[in-house]
Specification:
Elements lengths: L14 H10 L1 H14 L20 H8 L9 H13 L14 H7 L1
């Protein structure tokens, strides 16, 4: 999971860097997108959803929870809510940077 620690704050990446990261992480993108679609409630993430972010440090716990579930009903309520937040928060990640905020808690801890 920690292979891509450079993505400590995925929202800090430019659009060009986002596309480059997704290109480098194609296998993870395919695997995680399929996994998310198996576990998420509607609406399902679209094809350009950045599922590869689950390979980065900020989403380590969520990735671990998703790996431990065979079906959506295997997720705890907290993990299902976190997955729903992740899908909503990053739905437009590969399309725009408008209105994004850097993760404030991470920024305070590292800045």
């Amino acid at each position: 999971m920690d292979t891509y620690d450079f993505l400590a704050d995925p929202r800090a990446l430019t659009m060009q860097e986002r596309f480059a990261a997704r290109e480098r992480m194609q296998a993870a993108q395919r695997r995680w997108l399929s996994r998310i679609r198996d576990l998420a409630e509607a609406p399902q993430p679209e094809d350009d959803f950045p599922a590869f972010l689950l390979e980065t440090r900020p989403f380590h716990q969520l990735a671990r929870a998703l790996n431990g579930a065979a079906r959506a009903k295997d997720l705890s309520t907290e993990d299902a809510d976190q997955l729903a937040w992740f899908i909503r928060a990053f739905a437009d990640y590969m399309r725009t940077r408008d209105g994004e905020e850097i993760f404030p808690a991470l920024h305070r801890l590292t800045g």
